[in-house]
Amino acid sequence: MNDAGRIRVLLVDDQPLLRMGFRLILEGEDDLNVVGEASDGAEAVRQARELTPDVVLMDVRMPVLDGIEATRAITGSGSGARIIILTTFDIDEYAFAGLQAGASAFLLKDVAPAELVQAVRVVASGDAVVAPRVTQRLLETYVRGGDGGAAASAAAPAHRDPLLENLTPRETEMLEAMAEGLSNAEIAHRYFLSEATVKTHVRRILTKLHLRDRVQAVVYAYETGLVTPSNPDY
Length: 234
Known about the structure:
By secondary structure, the chain is of the alpha/beta class. The protein has 2 domains: 7-130, Response regulator (Rossmann fold, 3-Layer(aba) Sandwich), CATH 3.40.50.2300; 139-223, 3-Layer(aba) Sandwich (Rossmann fold), CATH 3.40.50. Helices cover 49% and strands 12% of the residues. The chain has a 5-stranded parallel β-sheet, with helices on both faces. Strand 1, helix 1 (16-26) and strand 2 form a beta-alpha-beta unit. Helix 3 (67-76) runs parallel beside helix 4, helix 6 packs parallel to helix 11 (214-223) and helix 8 crosses helix 11 (214-223). The radius of gyration is 17 Å and the shape is globular. The termini are far apart. Residues 146-157 have low confidence and may be disordered.
């Protein structure tokens, strides 16, 4: 955030009307500030570097450079910006590819104004918990081949990362619970811990596994085979 404590947001979409609508919603909030707009991925990468936003709302299908590659470029540059992928459908291979590329969350383009504002605030805080149950379903579909589609078949076989050995048994439990889509409050209730203690565990897990946020931790847990799809009844 900037010195005034406002969350700096960069809007990236090739549709001017959509950018205008999001700008009107976000700038109606005292703690949010739209610092720039981009109409393609290459421009998004440049503006992310120059404007240092806290949060980037990133469309996927754009000219010059798509949103997935732009996300990968921004997160790979060491930028502290958190990226929210904008999608048309909740179970979308582009949304999953965005999470793989380093995005912290995804939202539907027809999201309600209040949900958009809340998502920006949550992601900016570093918690990156946006519709966790939907995120879990997305991961089960694409990481482990739940739909039998092209994205699933292209996924690499799960492998046990040696970094997992750095986690304590309690931290491993925490990571598994995060992969279920549980919030800090739900994890605290399950293990009879305070939320502050859970937050400490989460921070240590992210540090040990070299991950940006808890959504990346969930992706990691599925890709390494720590957790597997349970096919729950949604």
